[in-house]
Amino acid sequence: FSEDCFFNSLEGYLNDKTAVLELHKASQIIYPEEPILDELSSWTVANTSCPNIGNTDFIKLAAEDFNLCQWIIENKLDKLSFARQKLGYCYFSAATTLYAPELSDARISWAKNGVLTTVVDDFFDVGGSMEELVNLVQLLEKWKVDGSTYFCSEQVEILFTAIRGSIHEIGSMALARQGRDVTRHINDIWVELVKSMLKEAEWARNKWVPTMEEYMKNARISFALGPIVLPALYLVGPKLSEEMVSSPEYNNLYEGMSTCGRLLNDWRGCQREFEQGKVNAVALLLLEGDRTLDDAAEEVKGAIERERKQLLKLVLLEREQGMPKCCKQLFWNMTKVLHLFYLKDDGFTNEEIVNVAKSIVNEPIHLFP
């Protein structure tokens, strides 16, 4: 390549940004007596900082990427000492399932809500008093707030402000794609989640043991996939009508995905939750009698496989007026992520999945020993 040849070539006329940037990177490796590389460095520097190369777009992208991490600090989530910080996990799951460049908004929605649901789960499990839990639920139910809004603690204010901000941000992004305001629906998804978490907190405090049916009806929701997956559906491309997001197909996809996730969590985390005195599906099967722990675990494992097959059937089934395929795929993709998280144990609670992410990004693939 030379400057004259490049700009007189077809690639040059097409303004091939990638080629210029790669040449610029290559030119940084300057060996002694390599004037060609020196020359390449000079003209590629000039052209990579030219507006035609899209330098402002790169700067904007870098700033947004950096600010995604700063978002936790800006929303004071780092001040909540009880909360697990799982940004890496949440963004990793978003990047593996929504990797196309045009799905940036969906990735941001998925990752931020993944972080928020984790923090809220910890708040309802260990971080908040009953007064604080009820206060947060009431604030989200209220929908419209003003200067007289009552926060019973700084923790509640931090959480409510972060959730509220995320709802409005995602609502704004969705408006541009959907042509209608879906903010209220996203808020309703959050209300359903926190009410289910409040019910579990009340069960724990009152030492109430639900039936398996009562438990699963609530636990599918409290597993907290709703705020992660459902708002992202509005950001992947197709327009979704109100009828579509209230249809049996939509609800069955959500229920199937959430059931798989909840049972995977209960199966892999049963020992830890036994020690914490928490109710889960394995424990409830044991209470029914005539089962060992291994029997109960195998029964839950079988239920997971059945739910997974049923979900795949729903995803692959073509309906003339049904959910778009790319939207249905999100439910299946989340299920695959969950199977990765819970492949050996509760991979979301421990740090094992961090090593998986690092290996995918940093380590080469070796086909043969």
TrEMBL record:
Keywords: Lyase, Magnesium, Metal-binding
Cofactor annotation: Mg(2+)
InterPro entries (alphabetical): Isoprenoid_synthase_dom_sf, Terpene_synth_N_sf, Terpene_synthase-like, Terpene_synthase_metal-bd, Terpenoid_cyclase/PrenylTrfase
Source superkingdom: Eukaryota
Segments forming domain Terpene synthase metal-binding: 76-309
GO cellular component: chloroplast
BP-aspect Gene Ontology terms: gibberellin biosynthetic process
One term of GO molecular function: terpene synthase activity
Gene3D superfamilies: Farnesyl Diphosphate Synthase, Terpene synthase, N-terminal domain
Record bears the keyword DNA-binding: no
Record carries keyword Lyase: yes
Protein name per the record: Terpene synthase metal-binding domain-containing protein
Originating organism: Linum tenue
The organism's taxonomic lineage, starting at the top: Eukaryota, Viridiplantae, Streptophyta, Embryophyta, Tracheophyta
